[in-house]
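Before relying on records like the one below, remember that each one covers exactly one chain. Contacts with other chains, cofactors or solvent are not represented anywhere in the record.
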Amino acid sequence: MRRIVLLGASGSIGSSTLEVLSQHPQQFTLVGFSVYHNVEAAVKIHQKYPDAIVCLKDLVASQRFKEAFPSAHVVYDELGLLTLATLEQCDLLVNALVGFAGLKPTLAAIKAGKPVALANKETLVAAGQLVQSYLNKYQGTMIPIDSEHSAIYQCLIGSQSPFKKIILTASGGSFRDKTREQLKDVTVEEALNHPNWSMGAKITIDSATMMNKAFEILEARWLFNARKDQIDVWMHRQSIVHSLVEFEDRAVMAQLGTPDMKVPIQFALTTPLRMPLQTDCLTVDMCRNLTFEPIDFNRFPILKLAFDLLSEVDSKAAVMNGANEVAVAAFLHGTCRFLDIDQFVIDVVAKADHFAIHTYEDALRADQLGRQLMQDTLKGVNV
C-alpha cells in the first residue's frame, strides 16, 4: 500500500488523482490532502478518507471543519502545507498546487526525503536551479505529471544513450487559428473553451496565451538537464502525440494517448510499472489525421521569451511567472485584456532588475517583484 499526500486536491489535477486512487484501493491510500477554499470538496474527500490529514486555507476554515468533523486532523495555511509535504507516513507527494505557492512544499518534501510527483509548473519555472540543487543535495526523486514531460520521461526510461533533442507538442490552445489582431476583444468565456483538454481556469488561460508551453520549455531544461539547442516545440492540434525524443542515431520515440491526465498521473504513482486504468483507449480513427506544424514566434511571442530565458540562470523566469499570475487573475476578473497578458509579461521581464536565485527567499523576492511590476502596469489599463 503506497501512502499518498495530495496538495491541490480540489483542482483538475487533484480530482483526476483522486479518480486514479479510487481505481486502485488495494495499491494506494490518501494520508493527507489540501484544498484552498473548496470546503465542499474537502468534506467529500474526508468522508472517503477519514484518517487523512486535511489542510485548509486559514484558521477560520479549519475551525469550522473541525466543528463539523470533530475527529478530523486539520491543519491550515502554509504551515499546514509544509506539515503535509514532510509527513512521516507519506510515501509520495503529489504537488498539484497552482502558482508559486507550490515551491516551498516541494523544497520541504525533497529535504525530508519524499519523492515528488510534480504537476506544479511554477516550482521549476521560478526556481529550477534551486530545486535541482536540493535534488542533488538530498538525493531526491522528482517525477513529472505534465503530459508532455511525462511523455519524455516515459520515452527515456531504460535508455542507456543520451538524447539529442526533446520535442514538446502544443495544441495551440483556444485561439490557435486566430491572428493577434482577431484577439483584441476575446472574452473570458471564449478563452476558457479549450479544444482538447479539461483543466482549471488559470492553466486554460495559460494554454490560450501559450504561457503554459513557455513554462514547459523552462521546466524541460531542469527536468532533463537539456540545453537550449536540445529543446523544440511543435504545434500538434490533436493532442494525441504528447511529446517526442530524438536520439543520437536520429531515431525518434514518441508517447501517444488520448488527452486524459489520469494516464500521466497514474504513471507517476506507479513508475516504472504500469497498471490497468479505466479511460478511453486510443483508436485508429483518432490517428488518421495527425498533424505537426512549426511554431510561429510572431504569433506566440511568449515562446520566444521562454527560449531566450533558457540561456539565463537568474530571476527572470521567476519574474515572468509572478507577473503572469497577476495578469491572468486580472483577465479573469475583467481588468486586463487577453492580448495584453503576454505582452505585459514580456515588458515586465525586460524592465525588472535581475539577480541570482540561491535560496527560497531569492525566488520569493523575484516572484514578488514580478507581481508588483505587473500590478503597476495594470493600474494604467482601461478595459
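The two ends are 53 Å apart (CA to CA).
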